[in-house]
Write a structure and sequence with these properties.
The chain has 132 residues and is α/β, with parallel strands linked by helices. It has a single domain, classed as Rossmann fold (3-Layer(aba) Sandwich). The chain is 40% helix and 23% strand. It contains five helices and five strands. It has a five-stranded parallel β-sheet with strand order 2-1-3-4-5, with helices on both faces. The protein is globular and about 35 Å long.
Length: 132
């Protein structure tokens, strides 16, 4: 089982972010966190890191769909346009149980899984095993 170096959480819900970070620490999931509160903030911060091919790029992104300013879908549409040498695992973590969202997620090659909130320590461990 491989530990993730950097996990990125893109979510506007401070309670979810706090809880997920706590679970990740308890599960020994990753060494560091990046947290962005909407897709625009994430793109504006990740794009220069990707373009410069810096080592501080996340290994895993937990992406919410419903956020203000730029939602998860808009983030994905921008993110896939950025050429990136490193493979970044993206998990959608959302409260949406809409079958259309699930079907839309399957259209993206770089989405590894679609998870319904809340996320448990056990589920994080399963993801870590999949990724490793």
């Amino acid at each position: 089982m491989k530990k993730v170096d950097i996990a990125c959480i893109i979510d506007d819900d401070p309670i979810f972010v706090f809880g997920t970070k706590k679970i990740m620490k308890l599960a020994n999931f990753c060494n560091n966190f990046m947290v962005f509160h909407n897709g625009e903030e994430a793109i504006n911060n990740l794009k220069p890191i990707i373009e410069a091919n810096e080592p501080s790029l996340p290994d895993v992104i937990l992406l919410d769909l419903n956020m203000p300013i730029m939602d998860g879908w808009q983030f994905l549409d921008e993110f896939v346009k950025i050429p990136c040498e490193k493979e970044i695992t993206i998990y959608i973590v959302t409260s949406s149980i809409d079958p259309q969202d699930l079907a839309r997620a399957k259209a993206y090659d770089n989405i590894s899984n679609y998870l319904i909130k809340p996320i448990s320590a056990q589920k994080l461990q399963e993801l870590l095993t999949e990724a490793g």
